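COURSE: Structural Biology Practicum
ASSIGNMENT: Worksheet 4, Part C
STUDENT ID: 0417
INSTRUCTIONS: Below are two proteins. For each, the amino acid sequence is given first, followed by its structure token string. Answer the questions at the end about the second protein only.

PROTEIN I
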Amino acid sequence: MKRVFTVMCILFAMSLASFAAADQATEVKSMVQKAVATYKEKGRDYTLKLINSTSGPFRKGELYVYATDLDGNVLAHPANRELIGRNQQKLVDAKGKPFAQELLDIAKTGTSGWVEYSWLRVGEKEPTPKRAYMESIPGENIAFSAGYYVR
């Protein structure tokens, strides 16, 4: 009986984690799409100002939107302002995966998509799986992205 209860608890915890990840994926995609819509409606300067705000509409806890140009230069980043102006094109994850280039490849097609990679979460010692969503605006030299830790 204890074994069945333990298995049921594990399965329940796994399903909760799956729902939480799905909720975060939906939230991340929604935040990026709102940044795109804001850009189209209010323009570049206004959107970048909102993104750079540490408590603005594009920051929710550890989730946030950042903006780059299609060459990989960071235009706005609410979590780390020191990244603004830096080129992230050659950035690789903890396993050497060129995830930043993969995100830029998506942006350059004028479409949207997801990239999975491993990243060191603040306060942890081992890299954690992360997913990032990237969306660009066709004809514009800008893309918006946000990500979440899978667990």
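PROTEIN II
(use this one for the questions)
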Amino acid sequence: MDDAACTAFLQWALPRLRMRWPGYRKVRKQVCKRIGGRLRDLGLPDADAYRQYLAQHPSEWSKLDGFCPITISRFYRDVDVFGHIDRAVLPELARSAMQRRPPLVRAWSIGCSGGEEPYTLSLIWDLSTAARSPGADFLIHATDVNETALDRARKACYPGTCLSTLPPPWLELAFERIDGRYCLRTRHRSRVTFALQDIRQGTPEGHFDLILCRNLVLTYFDEDLQRELLPRILARLSPGGAFVIGRKERIPSGLPLIAEQPRLGIYRAPS
């Protein structure tokens, strides 16, 4: 299926899945490749035939939905965002945690893909925050709808391209080279747990001091679905906790959040 045909198909299909075409415009090739493979598996000649197949086989819509998650990520994605988390967000959360027993900071990474985001948080804590916050601990819960991506995350071995924005000393400190890939050392993996979960279907139990929902809900889901999901997500955010979205994303009006660094997509829940 060529690009023009796939674009037309996605512009037709995505709204029926409660998703937004503008979010997929620049990353559509990943989804188009999956759909093209599905056409070959089904023996269908083109997108029009696939539309007819969807009409005749309603269960296929869930298969199509599974082709839509985008798995593009890297460590320390948006250097200034994670720099602010390093300098300001995590140290403040750690100070607050010291008033509790146990003195634990909990984070949730939504749509964690191959693990680059939650492992970045782990590295920031281990190589920076922990030394300034003795006595506090940090646990990260990471969720994604894609089991293949989660399997990659659990293995924690990456090509060099995923590490290009990582602070250079951290590469040697935190990774070991195995079979041409960079594998995260075990001690930096231990504070991260991964779970298969569709944010549209549910949220983890408990509350979190830091929630990252970057380049997912506010990029790919339609506005009505955003308004349904964001209150559920924010219900898991502890008072005074930090909520981080993508730099190019915008928070809908009416949500109980305080802008801390809106240019970086960083907000706070009221205390």
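ANSWER KEY EXCERPT:
Q1: Residues 119 and 189 are 7 Å apart (CA to CA).
Q2: The longest strand covers residues 137-144.
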